[in-house]
Amino acid sequence: PDRSYFNGCSNGGRHAMIAATRYAGDYDGVLAGAPGYNLPKAAIANIAGGQLYASVATSPTDLSTGFTAAERATVAAAVLGKCDALDGASDGLVQDVQACRGAFDLQRDVATCSGARDGSCLSAAQKTAIAKIFSGPTTSNGSRIYSTFPYDPGIASGGIPFWEFTAPVLLDSGAVGLIFKVPPENATGFNGPAFALGANLDTLVTQINATSTVYVESAMSFMTPPNPTDMSALKNRGGKIMVYHGVSDPIFSVDDSESWYQGLRAANGGDASNFARFFRVPGMGHCSGGPATDQFDALSALVNWVEQGQAPASLTASARGPGNAAAVNPEVPASWAPNRTRPLCP
User: Are 177 and 191 in contact (CB under 8 A)?
Assistant: First the structure.
């Protein structure tokens, strides 16, 4: 072929970041969605979140009782109330993520329950737990394990519960316990929930970076780019990379992608826009869904950039309302036009 492209989201986004760094000579363009390029760290972060939800859950076997759908809707409404208009348009989307960090305060802007939890408030213990989750996990000495997460109205979306409440004990437990850490747990009789809810975070961080005579490469070595902000090989051959990420992604944080992009800019004299673009998608969860304009053609934009030299100044994103040919997103608010569009700006 005249040109070669790589496109993936989630773990596929991680593969895309690997392609752009380890195999830059093989691709002219790379499109990475919600790239979990720090996957072992993100998995530990989700386990940490599971432990915190368990600490406030009313049912020990159901982490979702630590932060119910009604409570998530209450927080989402508070975020929207404080942050929707900060971007100049009151349209149900928080476009100015950075301004929202300063405008929204969980302790101040969400009511604290004076009695029983009823969905309209959070208990003091819940506020402490949720704030820790969104601040990102740390080791016992305060070292950051993984990124922060921004507050976004998409916190109330239907895609959140699996990643926040089920994945820690069903997916991340096995991934960390049986694959990422050295030494791994014995698979025979492995109990995912018990492992996740009883794990010591300091130990896990050490183990995902560890090697042995049997496991000669650590998870953080073989699963991540050798240096995520060194894309000089791709740049020098004229290649391009575009990254998009939902602001309400509950498993791989948009803040981690933001940190990567700022690091990439710093590594390129403060400006990487001649070969890299990063797009945040307000309201969108993990790769799609949420109260968002989550339908956009980033691949064609990448091809035009590579083959025609037309760098994308923005991407036009549309809502998947009733009658949408690419399937309806049931979380598009009824007040939105079904074909609403919004620009995604790098």
Answer: no
